[in-house]
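R.M. (postdoc): so does anyone remember the format we settled on? I'll just put the structure tokens first.
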């Protein structure tokens, strides 16, 4: 709901501030006073094209700003904008140098974003404004509401988006699978190369140590043999000398007990040296000086080190990674098949749900045609014909399988034409009023703006239009521009727009009318410049009837 409108330096308007109420708000005034300028300003807030010609002569910048009382957090989140509680603040700035700025909740944004948000705030019905009801998606939404198929339409939309989501997942998986398949030959080569070599845990270090032994077998054998000879085998070996020393100590210890511990230590040394000698003998027997073994070990180390240079320090770990990646290719193929089966099932669900929704829509559209024609007759269009034609959409969309076209023939002998081709602003406004009256089923509490709704009508028809607008104002906030007192009398609030001269320049002023001031304005609208007492009395009766209605 539109709560506040501020306009500065826009066309004839130098500065204007308006506070609107719930229900039926009416704008009246002499022709050329600027009523349509206010509608044009609201059009800017709905995303209409801006022009430097809109800037008041002699000024650099025009500003149109409005405060809407509504909660559009989800829509704002989708646009990447912060919400400001139960209010939405929109500002358009138009510069004389063609620069155009848009702000939503004081955050700079684009006209495109504004156009996406505006249908939840404003719906302007006039000859020169883009109508929400001319939009195919909006038509379907309202037809679904009339047919009580909103939940079914939401289900179809959810299925459509789910199919798209799973298809995107499948496409991503297929791309990943294709990339993996390109690596499969490389992975297979790496796997076979490492598997053929058959490395063992820590083998490289072991082979390096083994090669060191084989390469120095002569030195190792010489050292071990010499040690064994010196400690045990020769006549002058360490063990022979130690045995002689033991005998002498044993005889001497019989005379001095203090030698006994030394004798025990000597025996321990003899045993240790003997163990060392035996160990050197066994080691010497094990030293392999086979040149062929040396050659085989050198070749094995070279092969292992070549693989290390290609695949890193841990060949077995790399082999496991290669196997996991090769296994994942098989898993990806299996998952692709699962997703394809899922998509097939979801598409069938979508097709079934969309077909059922289409049937319900088309059956209800016949009732809607009858209801709209009945409303048009009461709005001084007795010969109007209204019909809805349907065309199939293949493949389906989020909205289902249907594309409706709303066709109208306002006058006898005229062919049926789509709504956007209606030439008369008054006819278009009344058609929109009829549609809105029949389709007033949404809970948006948006603001509906009607301009030229009174064109070409008067008397009883005008009174019926006023009654329809008042009825509609129980569901929406209504802003209506009119010259007819029969319509204005049904409004809850009335604003008079005047064009005045100030310092030699035309300016626009708006006053909210109450009491006698409103009676005078309505009487002027009925009688022109000469307001009679009879006109005033008639106006009071109109107001009484409007309030009663």
């Amino acid at each position: 709901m539109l709560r506040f409108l501020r306009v500065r330096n826009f066309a004839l308007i130098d500065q204007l501030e308006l506070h609107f109420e719930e229900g039926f708000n009416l704008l009246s005034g002499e022709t050329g006073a600027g009523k349509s300028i206010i509608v044009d300003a609201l059009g800017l807030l709905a995303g209409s094209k801006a022009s430097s010609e809109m800037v008041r002569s002699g000024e650099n910048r025009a500003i149109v700003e409005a405060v809407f009382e509504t909660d559009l957090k989800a829509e704002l989140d989708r646009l990447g904008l912060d919400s400001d509680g139960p209010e939405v603040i929109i500002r358009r700035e138009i510069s004389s140098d063609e620069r155009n700025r848009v702000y939503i909740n004081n955050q700079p944004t684009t006209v495109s974003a504004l156009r996406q948000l505006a249908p939840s705030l404003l719906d302007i019905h006039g000859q020169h404004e883009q109508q929400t009801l001319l939009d195919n998606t909006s038509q379907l939404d309202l037809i679904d509401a009339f047919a009580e198929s909103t939940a079914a339409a939401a289900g179809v939309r959810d299925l459509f988006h789910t199919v798209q989501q799973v298809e995107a997942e499948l496409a991503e998986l297929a791309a990943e699978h294709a990339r993996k398949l390109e690596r499969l030959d490389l992975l297979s080569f790496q796997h076979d190369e490492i598997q053929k070599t058959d490395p063992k845990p820590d083998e490289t270090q072991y082979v390096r140590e083994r090669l060191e032994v084989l390469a120095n077998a002569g030195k190792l054998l010489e050292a071990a043999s010499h040690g064994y000879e010196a400690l045990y085998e020769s006549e002058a070996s360490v063990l022979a000398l130690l045995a002689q020393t033991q005998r002498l100590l044993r005889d001497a210890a019989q005379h001095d007990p203090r030698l006994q511990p030394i004798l025990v230590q000597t025996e321990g040394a003899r045993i240790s040296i003997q163990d060392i000698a035996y160990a050197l003998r066994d080691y010497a027997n094990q030293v392999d000086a086979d040149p062929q073994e040396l050659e085989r070990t050198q070749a094995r180390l070279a092969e292992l080190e070549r693989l290390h240079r290609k695949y890193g320090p841990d060949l077995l770990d790399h082999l496991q990674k290669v196997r996991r990646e090769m296994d994942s290719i098989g898993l990806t193929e299996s998952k692709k098949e699962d997703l394809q089966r899922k998509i097939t099932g979801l598409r069938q669900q979508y097709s079934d749900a969309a077909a059922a929704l289409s049937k319900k829509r088309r059956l209800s559209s016949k009732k809607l045609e009858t209801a709209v024609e009945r409303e048009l007759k009461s709005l001084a269009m007795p010969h109007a014909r209204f019909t809805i034609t349907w065309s199939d959409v293949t493949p389906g969309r989020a909205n289902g399988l249907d594309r409706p076209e709303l066709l109208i023939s306002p006058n006898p002998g005229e062919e049926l034409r789509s709504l956007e081709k209606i030439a008369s602003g008054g006819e278009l406004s009344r058609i929109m009023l009829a549609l809105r009256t029949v389709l007033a089923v949404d809970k948006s509490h948006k603001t509906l703006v009607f301009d030229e709704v009174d064109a070409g009508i008067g008397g009883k028809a005008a009174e019926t239009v006023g009654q329809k607008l008042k009825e509609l104002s129980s569901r929406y906030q209504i802003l209506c521009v009119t010259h007819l007192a029969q319509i204005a009398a049904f409004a809850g609030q009335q604003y008079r727009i005047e064009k005045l001269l100030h310092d030699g320049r035309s300016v626009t002023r708006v006053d909210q009318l109450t009491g006698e001031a409103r009676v005078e304005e309505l009487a002027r609208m009925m009688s022109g410049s000469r307001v009679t007492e009879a006109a005033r009395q008639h106006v009071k009766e109109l107001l009484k009837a409007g309030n009663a209605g």
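R.M.: ...and that's the designed sequence above, right after the tokens. Also worth knowing: The mean pLDDT is 85. Residues 494 and 514 are 8 Å apart (CA to CA).
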